[in-house]
Amino acid sequence: MTQKTMDRFYTAAGVEPAEAGCAVVLDGRTVKTPQTRAELVVPTRALAEAIAAEWDAQEQKVRPRDMPLTSYAMTALDTAGPRREELIAGLAQHAETEMLCYRAPHPEQLADRQQALWQPLLDWAALTFDARLNVTTGILPVEQPEDALHALRNAVAAHDTPELAALSGSVKAGGSLVIGLALVAGHLTADQAFEAAEVESSFQIEQWGMDTEEETRRAGVYADLAGAARFVELLHA
After folding, report:
1. According to the model, what pLDDT value does residue 139 have?
2. Which of 65, 100, 164, 177 is the most buried (most CB within 10 A)?
């Protein structure tokens, strides 16, 4: 979904039954996605109503940044469906450089925090997907076992199209495939995912404070993670 604002051109958003679920409509006309012009139809009424509420909440300007559920639904229709295999391959590649495997050798406080937040997630991935990843404190890339990479690719591919859209957004926001998989699986809340993804940033802020640019970036990360978590929840409502 484009991030450019536009004038509000409709009076009210609503929901109508559709063959594959529920359609989001504006003044009775089904919303179309920006790239493929597909009709905005989602699997559950709960999700459709939440997306319609995002459109109704817009004022004089429509601000896509404030509409995460709409964005994930459109990504599912424009990207996760038509380019499914490409998206799976791209997400699976994150396992080769999984952020949780690269630990700070110092300061000790940061290293301890990474261990406390990250190791349980790697243990979860090992138990859930049989994907045991190697950890390093060096600056050189660490090679990951082929069977672990294959297992994580299968884990990505197991998601249906809407879930894949949410996974893609959460991996991009959090910088970690494992965090994304845990969030979409419901193993992590959005708050927990944010804490794990931003552990180094949070540590630096504690030491030196936070500027406006960093505050804006972190707010965007949290919004994307929270949006993905709610999107998945409403998919199964």
Report:
1. 78
2. 177
Q: What is the dihedral of CA 107, 144, 186, 109, to 10 degrees?
A: -10
pLDDT digits 0-9 by tens, 24-64: 999 999 999 999 999 999 999 999 999 999 999 999 999 99
Q: CB-based contacts of 108: which residues, under 8 Å, 6+ apart?
A: none
Amino acid identity, position 36: T
Amino acid of residue 132: R
Task: Read off the pLDDT of residues 110-142 as tens digits, 9 standing for 90 and up.
Answer: 999 999 999 999 999 999 999 999 999 977 899
Structure tokens at 53: 């509420």
In what helix (H) or strand (E) does residue 22 lie, and over which residues does it extend? strand 21-26
CA distances from 64 to 1, 7, 55, 67 (A): 7, 12, 9, 5
Q: Strand, coil or helix: what is 105?
A: coil
CA distance 228 to 59: 24
| pLDDT value for 237 | 87
Report, in angstroms and rounded to the nearest whole number, the Rg of the chain calculated over CA atoms: 19
pLDDT digit string, tens, across residues 198-227: 999 999 999 999 999 999 999 999 999 999
Chain-centroid distance of CA 144 in Å reads 23
Q: Other C-beta atoms within 10 Å of 32: how many?
A: 14
In terms of DSSP H, where are the helices of 62-198?
68-75, 84-93, 108-129, 146-157, 161-174, 177-184, 190-197
Q: Tell me if 76 sits within 8 A of 40, measured CB to CB.
A: no
Give alpha helix (H) positions in 26-107: 45-57, 68-75, 84-93
